[in-house]
């Protein structure tokens, strides 16, 4: 549903050398292609490889939208979180439409709250796979996130299905850009972006946001009638329009 959206970052769109944060990029699995992982995670001790089309310290900035967009929507999610999946299914198409219209650009942030609370590694493992998709293209990133959050595929928090690489590869077959992409498959299998995923999670933990899904427009949290993240497209659009008027 997100096809054709332009990615905008604050450096050279992840093209490699000379990145301001000192984290070099390279092909999936390239040795010595970045700084060592200092996110404090207990796993994934390999070198940090930043996906293409990311920016900022450790590649933890993922911004999609027109450079001229005057507003920024921050979306905080956990790939294993059922309410996040429901939000994505209900509001995702509206966000895609608004991005294409230049209403705002979107910055994506990811947590591993379900992993921490219930055990397992599906949140983190799915995020690593999403990093491999981001390295392919922004559209692949967004389409794969859409597939992971779909009612057909999302396992809910009672099952740790996304800890299984085979399941993540199965879901990837729904994304045209990933179906036969050998580099993506290798990066997923090898855990190339495991350290990056831990960096993303550490950035979420430092953000001050404690719940997912959370959505903010220009730093102001958007809520629906329940007082939490908007549950429907109509609630979301009303909240966005109210914030823009304010």
Description:
- The structure is a single chain.
- This protein has a domain at 57-218: Glutaredoxin (3-Layer(aba) Sandwich).
- Strands 1-3-2-4-5 form a five-stranded mixed beta sheet.
- It is α+β, with helices and mostly antiparallel strands.
- It has helices at 82-101, 113-118, 122-136, 138-149, 165-172, 182-190, 194-205, 233-245, and strands at 63-64, 72-78, 105-111, 214-217, 220-221.
- The protein is built from eight helices and five strands, in the order ββαβααααααββα.
- The radius of gyration is 17 Å and the shape is globular.
- The relative contact order is 0.18.
- Helix 3 (122-136) runs antiparallel to helix 4 (138-149), helix 3 runs antiparallel to helix 6 (182-190) and helix 3 crosses helix 7.
- InterPro entries: Thioredoxin-like_fold, Thioredoxin-like_sf.
- Residues 1-64 are annotated as: Disordered.
- Residues 59-223 form the Thioredoxin-like fold domain.
- This is Thioredoxin-like fold domain-containing protein.
